[in-house]
């Protein structure tokens, strides 16, 4: 490779993120050239429908109708994949790497499921894939994990990595809305998709966790090893009880390396009101990390959006450009990923929040406490309120217990005649 | 340069940070070697007093009594300066660069005052200086500014970059302590030095601001262009009023690029209680940035301490090692720093919080309001309380006004016979 004055970029996709990338390259192109010592020029943009009207004006001669025209163009140095989806993107990226190009992608589904396979192709070709934008939009995370925190053994990662669910939970908590009302509002404001399933059921967060955990723990992560529970069952009532007990409820993606193995889970979680993650409101994202040297650090910012995600893509393009300029052919600095053992969910320890209704009669609470005691689940906090003339609402928070043992306690309690209903089960962290 | 199996490190200084660096290299050496593909070995450590007892056991044969023995050793690849101070460190680093070594430093005083000079020497020599640890300890900041956010035009930076003062302000705010009591406690707990002047008077924060602002705005920063006010005059009473008005008080280092030029200042600041910086408690630091693409991002973590700062130093050592391994001789990616205009403090806009005592008699408030009105200072919030039988305490928050105009209003008010005393003046941001 010889140093060039201008590096050619080929884009695949021109949706929200792609538009952001073009806008940033246009607005800050001079500053970027100044910082890099080389210019960046978009040479081709592959789109599904060349005739679709776009939010941004693009020279029609740049537009092509298939990724192949981008990845096979010998003049293109850096391929930027921002079309999303898995199969076509995977083929295009593999081909681009095989053709000797550096690749930048914002595709979390792809990186979560086929990231290591693509990184291996890149390594083979002395090239690299940059994927900062695949997790938490504009928030620097992949790069800090690879570099700034590289001397640390990462012990734990907890992230608010889905803006839709955080917006909904914030609106429930601060405005007293119920889930369905908050979801409708999020859809109206563009923070939730028309089909919100992937967000509200925690799937989106689990892809991001797979990517973060792989890097944090230098391990291959299989999506099926991640326990996933969404927020569709979170009630305003539980948010209010949580507040009374000193907690906020957030959908957290949690990865932890313990002596028994990796623990990987996504679920709504009670976190102490003074925890830095508790203050992360609305559509914002944040990732909280614990390293053995650095201690606790948190990265906060917009987890999605055209320009924020474009900011991350452009930073990756700049890194790829530096690799090309400095003739570093293989910029891959990730550790070779091992395969660490994963702790099955039923053996993972949690604290539990439990809300139930019981007959308001003498001895009920005692028998409930006994049932917990017999299954070795000890109680930390209790609220009991009268629900109606004959029913009491009881809220309990347990100390740490394995999921399996908690389930046993729950089975016992559910069978008790005095228990009318179990209305909520949530996990709690300190 | 040819690839080596082990890179040799020479350290200058073995205090708190140096000890942290050694501990991390020892504990995580294997992981680091795995990630880098090369081992790191500490070959020499220069200390002032070789016979001083140390917290960490070190092979005595490594110890030398002058930095020259480190920077002139031809076997040493990377020099790590963690002794602090300006003159000797500056000489040692310059010599190390001239001898072809990469340099890592945690020295904020040095980088704030002579950073560009040293970076120029490095560039000349095709080497680099890494200084992540010089600002905000273990929190990734320098690197994100250079890389992750490089495609952004940074518009504003606001940082809680001094742990001592944040600890003191948190204790005042949460525990109802007065300044002197909180300071004494901070000293007891090791969060404040025996001589706390540099921290509590804002000087330490101003050095950090110089480094952050230079990188954020790609401009040379002269220390004398930074307005600095410490927290010694912050009273518990003002923290309470601030809370009543919906604000927290934090010592902020603020850098902003406006059409008129750069604004650079360190002062105690009222910030809205729901701002992410307001939740940063005790000795923790955080830096909040606004970029034109990414929007608002924040980096949070421990701003000091042996292992956290060591974590940043080790990340820099790893970056230097990568440069050496990949034969990238000049890793400097900073823009050439220009010299941007700085707005003089009297022309900078602020909102002001003002607490004063006035005679509790008819017409006083009206004449106060008139005095403000005549100097074009408009009022946003007002609290008036009876102080004693004859005196009222009045708290005002103005809308935006230039420092110069506010001073004029203040002069007028001070001269009013009904005004007994002006007890507090603080700046406010939204």
From TrEMBL, chains A, B:
It comes from the Bacteria. One of its GO terms (molecular function) is NADP binding. It catalyses: L-homoserine + NADP(+) = L-aspartate 4-semialdehyde + NADPH + H(+). Belongs to the homoserine dehydrogenase family. Pathway: Amino-acid biosynthesis; L-methionine biosynthesis via de novo pathway; L-homoserine from L-aspartate: step 3/3; Amino-acid biosynthesis; L-threonine biosynthesis; L-threonine from L-aspartate: step 3/5. The active site is at residue 208. L-homoserine binds at residue 193. Its cofactor is a metal cation. One of its GO terms (biological process) is threonine biosynthetic process. Residues 353-430 form the ACT domain. The lineage of its organism: Bacteria, Bacillati, Bacillota, Dethiobacteria, Dethiobacterales. InterPro entries: ACT-like_dom_sf (IPR045865), ACT_dom (IPR002912), Asp/hSer_DH_NAD-bd (IPR005106), HDH (IPR016204), HDH_cat (IPR001342), HDH_CS (IPR019811), NAD(P)-bd_dom_sf (IPR036291). NADP(+) binds at residues 12-19. It is an enzyme of class 1 (oxidoreductase). NADPH binds at residue 108. Keywords: Amino-acid biosynthesis, Metal-binding, Methionine biosynthesis, NAD, NADP, Oxidoreductase, Sodium, Threonine biosynthesis. This is Homoserine dehydrogenase. Its EC number is 1.1.1.3. The keyword Metal-binding applies. CDD domains: ACT_HSDH-Hom. It holds the Pfam family Homoserine_dh.
């Amino acid at each position: 490779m010889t140093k060039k004055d201008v590096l050619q970029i080929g884009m695949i996709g021109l949706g929200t993120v792609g538009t952001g990338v073009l806008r940033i390259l246009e607005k800050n192109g001079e500053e970027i050239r100044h910082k890099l010592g080389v210019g960046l020029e978009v040479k081709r943009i592959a789109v599904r429908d060349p005739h679709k009207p776009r939010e941004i004006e693009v020279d029609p001669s740049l537009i092509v109708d298939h990724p192949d025209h981008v990845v096979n163009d010998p003049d293109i140095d850096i391929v930027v994949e921002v079309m999303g989806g898995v199969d076509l993107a995977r083929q295009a990226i593999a081909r681009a790497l095989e053709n000797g190009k550096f690749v930048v992608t914002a595709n979390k589904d792809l990186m979560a499921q086929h990231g290591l396979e693509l990184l291996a192709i890149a390594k083979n070709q002395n090239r690299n894939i940059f994927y900062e934008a695949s997790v938490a939009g504009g928030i620097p995370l992949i790069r800090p994990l690879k570099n700034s925190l590289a001397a640390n053994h990462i012990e734990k990662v907890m992230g608010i990595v889905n803006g839709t669910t955080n917006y909904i939970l914030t609106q429930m908590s601060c405005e007293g809305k119920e889930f369905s009302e908050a979801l409708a509002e999020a859809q109206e404001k563009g923070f939730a998709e028309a089909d919100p399933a992937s967000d509200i059921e925690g799937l989106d967060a689990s892809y991001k966790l797979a990517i973060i955990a792989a890097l944090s723990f230098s391990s291959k992560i299989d999506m099926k090893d991640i326990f996933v529970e969404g927020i569709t069952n979170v009630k305003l009532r539980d948010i209010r009880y949580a507040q009374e007990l000193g907690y906020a409820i957030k959908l957290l993606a949690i990865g932890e390396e313990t002596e028994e193995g990796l623990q990987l889970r996504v679920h709504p979680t009670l976190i102490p009101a003074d925890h830095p993650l508790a203050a992360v409101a609305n559509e914002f994202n944040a990732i909280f990390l614990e390293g053995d040297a650095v201690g606790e650090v948190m990265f906060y910012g917009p987890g999605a959006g055209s320009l924020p995600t474009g900011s991350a893509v452009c930073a990756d393009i700049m890194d790829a450009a530096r690799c090309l300029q400095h003739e570093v052919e293989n910029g891959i600095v990730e550790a070779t990923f091992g395969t660490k053992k994963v702790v099955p969910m039923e053996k993972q320890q949690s604290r539990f929040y439990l809300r139930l209704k019981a007959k308001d009669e003498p001895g009920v609470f005692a028998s409930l406490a006994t049932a917990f005691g017999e299954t070795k689940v000890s109680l930390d906090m209790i609220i009991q309120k009268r629900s109606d003339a004959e029913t009491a609402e009881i809220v309990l928070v347990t100390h740490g217990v394995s999921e399996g043992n908690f389930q046993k306690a729950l089975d016992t309690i559910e069978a008790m005649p005095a228990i009318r209903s179990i209305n909520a089960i949530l996990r709690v962290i300190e």
